[in-house]
Amino acid sequence: MLDGCTPWPGECVDRYWAAGHWRGNTLDNLLRGWALQYGPRTALVHDGTRLTYAALNRRVDRMAAGLRLRGLRPGQRVVVHLPNVSEFVVSVFALMRAGVVPVLCPVTLRAPEVSHLVRLTQAVGYVGPSTYRGFDHTAMAADIAAQGPFLRRVFTREAPGGASPYGGLTTDPAGCHYAPLDSIDAPPGPALAQRADDVAFFLLAPGPSGDGTALPRLLPRTHNDYAYQAGAAAESVALTEDDVYLAAMPAASNFAFGCPGIVGTLSVGGTVVLVEDPGPAACLPVLAAQGVTVTSVPPAVAELWCDARPAGPADPNRLRLVQIGGDPAGTAAAVRLGPPWDRLVQRVYGTDAGVLTLGRVAGVADGPGAVPGTRGRPLSPDDEVRVVDADGKDVPDGQSGELLVRGPYTPRGYYRAPDDNARAFTPDGYLRTGARAHRTPDGDLHFATRD
Predict the structure, then answer these.
(1) Which of 30, 190, 199, 304 is buried most, with the most CB atoms less than 10 Å from its CB?
(2) What CATH architecture is 200-450?
(3) Which listed CATH number (3.30.750.24, 3.40.50.150, 3.40.1350.10, 3.40.50.980) goes with 27-40+51-194?
(4) What's the pTM?
(5) DSSP H/E element including 296
(6) Is the pLDDT of residue 169 over 60?
């Protein structure tokens, strides 16, 4: 594991392996298996472009070889700063296949945050749009590279139909190399031997202020723990190869990437539809056009969808599950969706670092008398959950307290952040989620507001 990461204790590692949660396969190698199993099926859809599993794996193979040819080496870090486009999925898997660690960065972040991530991870590369929605990402990357000493490779996605300003690989006076992303292509060589307990990628987590004013922290996710999370989440919502997942939230978020999201859908041979705007104008037509069966949105987006829908019941087409995450406002959004949509809603609680609970689908198993804030049980049977008072003592079922968690997909610490780790984790490795919850007699977790 990389320096600056907190490993799981040996006894936990042994337990997770023995239970079959961790299986020793890297995410990029899992993609190879999915391509063999589901080859001609459609894996990705974006803006009229469709990629089969075989084509996705082939493109990942060739991009990984091209990245190595461009000088990237195993263990190095690269910031991935792309919107919800096919190249996001291809780039992340290609970097992992090259042994490089992607740092997943929402495309809305700007120079202060991206520069911080480059310095924190000593990232040698950047993958982003050339320009996107009026913002010049190439110029930003060039400014960060000029500050030195880390960033030396910039790969940019050009707008469809647009011409690259590079015309191939170029180098600026500071020695930083620039190339269009679609030129990163080479015949694949022998597969790279990798360990599944290595860091697969980094996810962003809010800064310690929790209000967006502090620079983000990073969470290392290993191949073992993330493959388990995405696979278990897919199983819990009964995803199959007939499902079509709409990635409306940022693909760089934990919710959209693996709860079950993109990775979980690919693991069962389903189809991932990527949209760059979560608003109703972009998403509602796609539900019918692509036969979407599953999607996940935060409460604010669900509210926008509610406002855009015509009054009265509306046919949700093939949609069978709408996951709503975030704060308790999601309950109001679920109610506002109205029939038959409200019977498709699943409340989800999860953080990039913490426990993931997938609630029972509203109005189906729970019935009309269900407690609206209950979001279900932890994803894994080996999730250890405590509800504690202000003194850190466990409280009885039914009594509210702070939720503490640890388990096979909950990292034990932020990357290179010892002070934050001392505040956010207990000495025995429980994450202090900051969420207030109580446990019901039947074992479900019911969430209130965050502290």
Answers:
(1) 199
(2) 3-Layer(aba) Sandwich (3.40)
(3) 3.40.50.980
(4) 0.94
(5) strand 294-297
(6) no
